[in-house]
Every structure is written in C-alpha cells, then in structure tokens.
Amino acid sequence: AQSVAQPEDQVNVAEGNPLTVKCTYSVSGNPYLFWYVQYPNRGLQFLLKYITGDNLVKGSYGFEAEFNKSQTSFHLKKPSALVSDSALYFCAVRDRDTGRRALTFGSGTRLQVQP
Amino acid sequence: ETGVTQTPRHLVMGMTNKKSLKCEQHLGHNAMYWYKQSAKKPLELMFVYSLEERVENNSVPSRFSPECPNSSHLFLHLHTLQPEDSALYLCASSQEDRLAGGKRDTQYFGPGTRLTVL
Questions:
Q1: CA geometry: angle A89, A90, A95, nearest 5 deg
Q2: What pLDDT score does A2 carry?
Q3: I want to staple A19 with a disulfide (CB 3.0 to 4.6 A). Which of A81, B108, B110, B118 is the partner?
Q4: Three-state DSSP class for A91?
Q5: 3-class SS at B87?
Q6: Of A44, A40, A32, A27, which Cα lies nearest the Cα of A90?
Q7: Which residues of A22-63 form beta strands (DSSP E)?
Q8: Exposure pattern of B94-112 as b/e (b: 16+ CB <10 Å)?
Q9: Confidence band (pLDDT; 50, 70, 90) for B102?
C-alpha cells in the first residue's frame, strides 16, 4: 500500500521569507513523488516530480523539493515566498515497483503568504 | 492552461436525474483518469483508462459509469446520485512511457466539474 502524510493543514509565512511545506510518504517499493498546486476553483497544476537521480528537484515558479530516502520525506521549499503563492498544495506518491498507475495524494496543505 | 478541458464546470442535479461529465485532452496522451475531490478529504482515484481500456476501478458505486470512446475523450455518466456524491470531479491525462513500464508519467489535470446533488 502507498500513503502520503501532510502534517500541516495550513502554513503561514510572510512575503519574502522562505517557505517549507512538509510531506512524508510510505511505499513498499521505490517512490515516484510529485507536488501539485491548486488555486481556488481550478484543477491541480503540476509543480515538480522526483523520479530518480539528484535528490534536489527544481520545478515551476521557483519551487524545489528535496527527496530524503532515510526520512521518507519530500518537503517542498521556496527561498522567498510571494503573495501569489497562496494556494492549496498536494503531495502525491506512486510506487514504481507495482503495476498501479494511480497517484495517492495527501490531504493538502494550505499556504497563506502575508504581505 | 494544462490542455485538459472539462464540461460543464458546474452541475446541479436531483437524485433522480441522469447527467454526464465530459473530459477532453489535447495533449496526445494515452491514459486518462477520473478523481473525486470532496471537502476535507484527499483526492480519491475513481477510474483509470489506458489505451481506451479500463485498467483500474477503485470500488466505485455503479451509479458512476465511465466511458472512454477514444484516447482524447473520457465521460462519467451519472444516475441516481446521492447528496454525498457532491464534490469536485477532476479529470487527468498522462502519456505512458512504455520504455519505463508506464509508471513515470506526470498527470495533467483539468479544472474540474463542481457537482451538487440535491
């Protein structure tokens, strides 16, 4: 079975400060990991993914995430937050050693960036 | 925009109605998905189609009936729904990489259909 935990329902950060949105995962095999963002009344937009290789993955809009196998984590980071980054963020995992195509999503973390 | 469109964007229906949700992808992908997003719950996968064949069905009630007539279109037919079926229904598509066993693909989502069942 595969699962994702996003321990924070909401993260508040001031504009210009660094931000971190936490994600931990559980899979029986090796993971493919994804971050998506959802703005109000919109679908999910892909930000970045980890497949293999470098543990630090860079994505859209200045976001990056670091894969940590020993801690089974894939935290999303950005050096300097913008008010326009305020949205709902989802972490997702897929076990690459099974035949399932489905992503398992976390419950989401609402990021609020204050001016 | 992601290249995945969904219609209608909003739908209100009674419990005895029959309606259909439509999804169209303009990305040349060969796999399509239906997800359900309810308030305060993680996204739930409903169905997966690969090369127009249903390959995953996540114990979804029979009042939801998917149809994939070709690789660009996906429908979700609804009948005799319950109020608890009210949710945002999201469609996604991906291109399966056969060399990688079809497991590495990024899923691109449509904007969703907000369904309210009265």
A1: 155
A2: 86
A3: A81
A4: strand
A5: strand
A6: A44
A7: 24-26, 31-38, 44-50, 56-58
A8: bbbeeeeebbbbbbbbbbb
A9: very low
Q: What is the gyration radius of the CA atoms in chain A, in angstroms?
A: 14
* Chain-chain contact of B111 with A45 (C-beta, under 8 angstroms): no
3-class SS of residue B83: helix
CA distance A114 to A90: 20
Shortest distance between the Cα of A55 and any Cα of chain B, in A, equals 16
Q: Which two tokens stand for residue B46?
A: 């409903």
Contact A46 B106 (CB under 8 A): yes
- From A40's Cα to the closest Cα of chain B, the distance in A is 10
The verdict on A71 touching B (C-beta cutoff 8 Å) is no
Q: How confident is the model at residue B54 (pLDDT cuts 50, 70, 90)?
A: confident
As a residue count, chain B comes to: 118
Beta strands in chain B (DSSP E): 4-7, 10-13, 18-25, 31-37, 44-50, 53-57, 64-70, 73-79, 87-94, 108-109, 113-117
Kindly give the pairing relationship between strand B87-94 and strand B108-109: antiparallel
